């Protein structure tokens, strides 16, 4: 198995008006998901240190690949606070 990290690999999580936009780039491929702010659910996949799953309107995307596992709950909390407008 070959694994290479590219300079452009990363995640972007943006709140634009009523939309939460998540972009994940790996190896030059970009995966993008948009969710209506009021319908978004943010949860860990398995436990507190697993990837964070963002759900909404029948779609989901995982985030948190590029931060240390122990910081993922903090990221999930920050996303939830931003969605609430706090």
Summarize the structure.
The chain is an alpha+beta fold and 86 residues long. The chain has one domain. The protein contains 1 helix and 6 strands.
Explain this structure to me?
Helix content is 15%, strand content 43%. With 86 residues, it is an alpha+beta fold. It has one domain. It has a three-stranded antiparallel β-sheet with strand order 1-2-3, covered by helices on one side. A three-stranded antiparallel β-sheet has the order 4-5-6, covered by helices on one side. A hairpin with a 2-residue loop joins strand 5 (52-56) and strand 6. It is globular, with a radius of gyration of 13 Å.
How do the strands of the widest beta sheet line up side by side?
1-2-3
Number of domains: 1
Gyration radius, in Å: 13 Å
| CA-CA gap between termini | 43 Å
Number of strands: 6
Number of alpha- plus pi-helical segments: 1
Structural class: alpha+beta
Return the average pLDDT rounded to an integer. Answer: 87
- Main sheet: strands, sense, barrel: 3 strands, antiparallel
Helix content: 10-25%
The fraction of residues in strands falls at 35-45%
| Morphology call | globular
Order of helices and strands: EEEEEEH
Which properties best describe this structure?
globular; 1 helix; 86 residues; alpha+beta; 3-stranded antiparallel β-sheet
Topology:
Elements: E1 10-16, E2 19-26, E3 29-36, E4 41-44, E5 52-56, E6 59-63, H1 72-84
Antiparallel strand pairs: 1-2, 2-3, 4-5, 5-6
